[in-house]
């Protein structure tokens, strides 16, 4: 890709190098970068993480950076981006004050991928059996990062509403951007009922909701489902399947932990039913989207369905009861008419909520509007200004102290 320095530059500062084949978040990140490139931005990616053999080969500029080192300051000032994207709130904490100091005219954009605090709070509620408590210390950090940025893109309208209602964030600081789908598969364009067999589950194992889903599947759902579908197997795919996940590999009972797949859609298109038994989580669910895009009826829970489609749009009743989930999955697996109903419902959901062009254009228009009058936009963000004065200064002094300590240790 041409490195035309006269084009406006968008810099992504990423916690990890994007791995689109490993995580839905990685795929979404690349979708955002691609739409920015289409809009005329020169794209640069920077991360303090070590490269991996699974990271995307994007053709964009890639830069290794370091946390708590002032070398970043000179580098980002020379790069002079007009847009800086943080892919997690903790990345904004680490680098946001440096960007604001060195590139004060750059629009800052936070991509939460999902509302991390909501996912954590739901996890704690599930483990403790206590009511959901959104107001945890991690929420304070995440909401502070949102307030400090010029705009935050949220993948879930549910979470946009939650931030407005419970955390009093203004609408003009939030932007809904779902998964972006350029081509909606037509009925009949993917393998049909008779061409498929067995069930699948897919999701990266670094993600806590996916790990919990495998445990719940193995211990509570699969024994019931196996009894309803004797001889049928369930194959679990996902990157980074460690020993804790491999212990559920049980070929004699038809449950196999397969591991990484290079092509999620091609893999799922061989299976008759896609399972997404999520008990907690947030945001939109890549495993559900992959099921839809591959024409694979996807059986999920209310948490899995959240922000993807309304409850009545799935073709079956949503439930978080293991026995009922097993019965629904078995019915869809055995009955071609039910299978077709669920598949067609997913195609309708894709067409109505995830089309690429209108969402891409709306984001670019929003960013251009902010950039045209950045001072006015920032002047009304009084809480962001206060937090930059206090919390960012604390982050700055901590970072400078760590840098000085490291230099002394190396001298």
Task: Tell me what the structure shows.
With 411 residues, the protein is α/β, with parallel strands linked by helices. The chain folds into 2 domains: 9-180 and 356-410, Glycogen Phosphorylase B (Rossmann fold, 3-Layer(aba) Sandwich); 193-353, Glycogen Phosphorylase B (Rossmann fold, 3-Layer(aba) Sandwich). Helix content is 48%, strand content 12%. It contains 16 helices and 12 strands. The protein has helices at 24-38, 71-79, 89-102, 116-128, 137-148, 157-166, 208-228, 243-246, 264-268, 286-293, 302-305, 322-334, 336-353, 356-372, 374-379, 382-410, and strands at residues 9-13, 42-47, 61-64, 83-86, 107-111, 151-154, 174-176, 199-202, 234-237, 255-259, 273-276, 298-300. A 7-stranded parallel β-sheet has the order 3-2-1-4-5-6-7, with helices on both faces. Helix 7 (208-228) packs across helix 12 (322-334). The protein is globular, with a radius of gyration of 22 Å. The two termini are 41 Å apart. The mean pLDDT is 92.
> What order do the SSEs take from the amino end to the carboxyl end, as H and E?
EHEEHEHEHHEHEEHEHEHEHEHHHHHH
User: How many angstroms does the end-to-end distance come to?
Assistant: 41 Å
Give Rg in angstroms: 22 Å
The main pleated sheet reads as: 7 strands, parallel
Task: Give the full name of the CATH homologous superfamily of the largest domain.
Answer: Glycogen Phosphorylase B
The low-pLDDT segments are none
Strand order of the largest sheet: 3-2-1-4-5-6-7
CATH top level of the largest domain is Alpha Beta
Number of helices: 16
Q: Architecture of the largest domain in CATH?
A: 3-Layer(aba) Sandwich
What CATH calls the topology of the largest domain is Rossmann fold
Helix-and-strand structural type: alpha/beta
Q: Give a count of the beta strands, DSSP E runs of length 2 or more.
A: 12
Strand-residue proportion: 5-15%
User: What global shape is seen?
Assistant: globular
Helix content: 40-55%
